Amino acid sequence: MSEIKLLLNAYYEALHDRLEANKDLLTAKIEKFLQDEFANHDFGSIDQEKFDAYRDACLAFVVERIEMYNPIGIQYTFDSTRRKQAFELELQLNFYDSRSEFEALIQAAQGKLQTHIGKQELRELAKELIKDVGAFPDKSIISAYQSEPALGKLPDYIVARAIEEIITST
């Protein structure tokens, strides 16, 4: 396995561990961010039932993101033989384009690599990578929502904001 792939696996594993350990904090941040967004945008009448539905969607997205970063499942999500095909399909399904963010992640990872790195060094480099670039694809999600807020984008946006806040504070 190439050193870049090892570092990316360590990056995703570190994200998985941080998010798994902070599920309760993520839930609290999601509720606050949702309230803020509904207060700051005219999305029409939002009663408690609608608020709960959006909160539940956000919580489901959190579970999905944690599983996406799962070190056991990451090899299937980012398997090199299907990565390009899966990436193109994801681009068609998502409201955001994360190609440039992924390239920035790869470049940042390459910039951190040294030859003959050990497991502990990989963990430290993964932490640095998270600090430098955040959690992929949060920046793409956040910028796409902020450029054109919409209810359909709201759960992804809220989860991305909560994740970014969690990973920068832990």
List the helices and strands and how they pair.
Blueprint lengths: L2 H19 L1 H18 L7 H22 L4 H4 L2 H14 L5 H14 L6 H15 L4 H10 L6 H16 L1
State the separation between the terminal residues, measured CA to CA. Answer: 29 Å
Shape field: globular
For the report, how would you describe the main beta sheet? none
Q: What is the typical, i.e. mean, pLDDT?
A: 87
Total of domains:
1
Q: What's the Cα radius of gyration?
A: 17 Å
Task: State the helical fraction.
Answer: over 70%
Query: How many β-strands, per DSSP?
Result: 0
Task: Quote the beta fraction.
Answer: under 5%
Q: What is the helix tally?
A: 9
> Uncertain regions: pLDDT < 50 for 5+ in a row?
none
Secondary-structure element order, as H and E? HHHHHHHHH
Structural class: mainly alpha
Please tell me about this protein's structure.
The protein has helices at 3-21, 23-40, 48-69, 74-77, 80-93, 99-112, 119-133, 138-147, 154-169. It is mainly alpha-helical. The chain has one domain (3-169). Helix 1 (3-21) crosses helix 7 (119-133) and helix 2 packs across helix 9. The longest helix has 22 residues, at 48-69. The radius of gyration is 17 Å and the shape is globular. The mean pLDDT is 87.
Which key terms come to mind for this protein?
170 residues, mainly alpha
Brief sketch in words of this structure:
78% of the residues lie in helices and 0% in strands. By secondary structure, the protein is an all-alpha fold.
